[in-house]
Amino acid sequence: MTGKTQQVLEAHNVHVAFGGIHALSGVDMRLDQGTVLGLIGPNGAGKTTMVNVLSGFQKPTRGSVVLNGQDVSALGPQRLARAGVGRSFQAARLFRDMTVEQNLTVAGIGTGRGGRAAARAAAEVLDWMGLTRVAEKRCDALSYGDERRVSIARALALHPAFVLLDEPASGMNDAECDALMHTIAHIPERFGCGVLLIEHNMKVIMGVCQRIHVLDGGRSLAEGTPGEVQNDPDVRRAYLGKKAAAEAHHLI
Amino acid sequence: MPDKPMTPAARLAKYWFPVLALILPLLAVVVVADLFGSVMLQRTVTEALIRVVVVVGIYIFVGNSGIISFGSVTFMAIAAYATGWQTCCSMLKPITMPGLPEFLRDATYPLFPAALTSVALAALVAFVTGLVLMRMGGLAASISTLAVLFIINVVYSNWESVTMGTASMVGLPRYVTAWIALGAAVVAIVVAWVYQKSPLGLAIRATRADEVAAQACGVSLYWPRLLAFTLSGAVMGLGGVLTAHFLGTVSINFFFLKLTFLALAMLVVGGMGSLAGAVVGVAAVSIIIDVFRRMEAGVSLGGTTLALPAGTQELVLAVVMLAILIFRKDGIMGGQEFHWRGFRGKKAAIDTSLAGEGPK
Amino acid sequence: MSNLVQILVDAISLGSLYALVALAIGLVFGVMKLINFAQADYITIGAYALVVPSASVSPALFIGGWPVVFMVAGVLAVVTVLALLTERIAFRPMRNSNPATLLISSFAVSYFLQHLVILVHTGRPKSVGVGNSLSAAVEIAGIRLPGNQILTMVVAAVMLVGLVIFLKKTPMGIQMRAAAENFQMARLMGVRANRVIAVAFVISGVMAAAVSLLLVVQTGTLDVRMGLMPVIFAFFATVIGGMGSLPGAALGGFIVGFISVMLQAFLPADLRPFRDAGVFLLVILILLVRPQGLIVDRAARERV
């Protein structure tokens, strides 16, 4: 499946407006298979909107989403999931009355596998995520941390070329968060997919991402390697200039 | 806690246990009624078993999709009339229903093929209406199922030359015994179970739990619902055929709001989240109905007859349904099936989750 | 020509009746995501309150025998209290349930009330002579119009305008719109849920009372199901208007009324009995083209 050709997911000049509010204004982004791209920015920067656009939940007002050279802006979320774009949600959005294993099996079925194959794929992902111990548990009985991990596992169970993770570590303590970031860093080599990782804490994802994209107020502020971004004058001004506020919000 | 692999026999037993737990009690009731019961009791049991078919039919769509359907009894009507046209009163048909096409008006068909084609017609109508309705979101679809109910009611009530309007079509062969109703109930339960345990069943349950997350998992909101609606229509059709050949008459106003309410009340009381809920709901509500029917008829106490006013049964049923919705939203069964371990399943899961928490 | 005008007046008058019912349903849906089947029984019970309970088909008048002002006030009081009671007893305990559960619970409440009416008044249709004088035709600009249609249009217009003023100008109305937009947020901002919902039910009760009086004046009969068809049509009015949108509900009411009258007027005679089926069919066709309804409400779309 993987490694045949390098897949690319791109956003070209994406604008999203809700009524008069511009959530995104002309954002370009490129996600390559096999890499982790961090998407950071303060609350309201448009990070989740960007993920919604890339996964088909939000149609761009202007601009386009391109998957391997094909314009997929018109596709709905279900078609994009089948085309290889998986995602998780800020609120885990698990199927609460199902077991963990069934949650992952749904993703397998959704991408056209038979029941057996989907269950097998689900078991593999659970094993890799260290979640086999809760496989038979109903999702409304999971601990918070497990819930978050299962939501990532479910996105991976699509065997997507790209997986978009929307603040996977939110609400976790430092140790849990570090462990999770370690896991996420290894997703490309294990599943061969490109990862888009939303986080508003820059420190947390420095070690995980090959590249980082900074959004602020719906515009791209900077993109580059973690080092470049950290030293980018615009980023420094945006973040450090608001240091007092930033500390309160754990921005840096 | 190592996963011990199950033997194929154990897996089979685990898979079918919840179904057997529903079917065997039904079988026992039929055997007892057959051996010891009066004709009245046998009729009551038969009626209840037909309701099992109907409520399981509604459950297949409503339970799995989470979308309330007020229109499902329409498909009963479609099949009931279809089997009536094929099997009823060969002498009278040309006079009472002159508008029927020749192959129906001038011929009478064997019962079993008539039942099958009627069920197929119900499924077809469900499929075609589903093509339109399932494009809408949950609530709009629910409301629109009402439109289906009213459209067919208006059409069949006024299409005098084919349906005899609001008059009853009489003289259908009455072949539905408790055993035949049991057979149909078993078919309905097995169909519902196999469907809900299949990948397709899992997919539609995902849309019920969370539409957004289901789409993110590549699951369409449309096709799984359409399939469930069609399958539900087929089983409702079976219920319609049974009703027709149990009563021996077919009348369009029988398949209207009252039956819709009764079927939904049963589903709600049992719990619409599980197949067991559908069956248990039929049992519970059938008992309530029967008790109050008798009390309305009058209970003689030492020479004086005490009777509840007619209509009490309906009020009680509505109150029971509301009480369930308020105090036990997921019904008697709480969305659970009768699993191996019985009701301990969910609780045990919660217990281990608390114990198992901590660092990896 | 005058025939066409008559058809148009029929359409507007029926449409405004449906718009009233649809607004009542839309208002309650807005504040608590409940599609209220029992609206039908508010209408029915309001009408039955006019007569003394009995098995007779031409029963003695009760509230219906009072002087007009007291009669209207009496029906208003009965229906409003009924609406509040159903809210308090049945719907409030379920406030946090999902819309499907609420829908089915209102179906149960409706079934209960309908059979309560049957228990008290029997299920037979009754005739009642209230407002007979209003059906006399009035001549305006050379066109003769039945007085009750004029009454319907005037009442509907007054209530529509009143509702708009209430929603736009009064603090309670503004709170109600805020609650309809985003209930959680409105609560955080200090909107008192119980009061807003209760007021929504009061308004839906007032509208139901108006509709029941108008129906009685028009038809002179009482029937256990007299509220059912207007409410079913109003459901579709809210759906084609776009669920959660009040202007949409009113617009939908007029559309359904228009379709109904046009079919009645222009269908060939032998197809006329199928009119209601045609209305529903057209409604479904509209929904096929616009599954979200004509006016898409932003709050109704789920946030990801």
Lateral arrangement of strands in the main beta sheet of chain B: 1-2
**CATH superfamily caption of chain A:** P-loop containing nucleotide triphosphate hydrolases
Strand order of the largest sheet of chain A: 6-7-8-3-9-10
Work out the helix count of chain B: 16
Q: For this structure, what is the CATH class of chain A?
A: Alpha Beta
Please trace the helix and strand order of chain A, writing H or E for each element: EEEHEEHEHHHEHHEHEEHHH
Give the overall form of chain B. globular
Pfam families (chain A): ABC_tran, BCA_ABC_TP_C
InterPro entries (chain A): AAA+_ATPase (IPR003593), ABC_AA/LPS_Transport (IPR051120), ABC_transporter-like_ATP-bd (IPR003439), BCA_ABC_TP_C (IPR032823), P-loop_NTPase (IPR027417)
Keywords (chain A): ATP-binding, Nucleotide-binding, Transport
Organism (chain A): Ruixingdingia sedimenti
Overview of the structural elements:
The complex is a heterotrimer of chains A (252), B (360) and C (304). Chain A has 252 residues and is an alpha/beta fold. Chain A is 38% helix and 24% strand. In chain A, the strands form two sheets. Chain A has a six-stranded mixed beta sheet, with helices on both faces. Chain A has a four-stranded antiparallel beta sheet with strand order 2-1-4-5, with helices on one face. By secondary structure, chain B is mostly helical. In chain B, the strands form two sheets. In chain B, strands 1-2 form a two-stranded antiparallel sheet. Chain B has a two-stranded antiparallel ribbon with strand order 3-4. In chain B, helix 1 runs antiparallel to helix 2 and helix 14 packs antiparallel against helix 15. Chain C is mainly alpha-helical and 304 residues long. Chain C has a single domain, classed as ABC transporter involved in vitamin B12 uptake, BtuC, CATH 1.10.3470. In chain C, 67% of the residues lie in helices and 4% in strands. Chain C is built from eleven helices and four strands. In chain C, strand 2 and strand 3 form a beta hairpin. The longest helix of chain C has 31 residues. At the B-C interface, helix 7, helix 13 and helix 15 of B face helix 4, helix 9 and helix 11 of C.
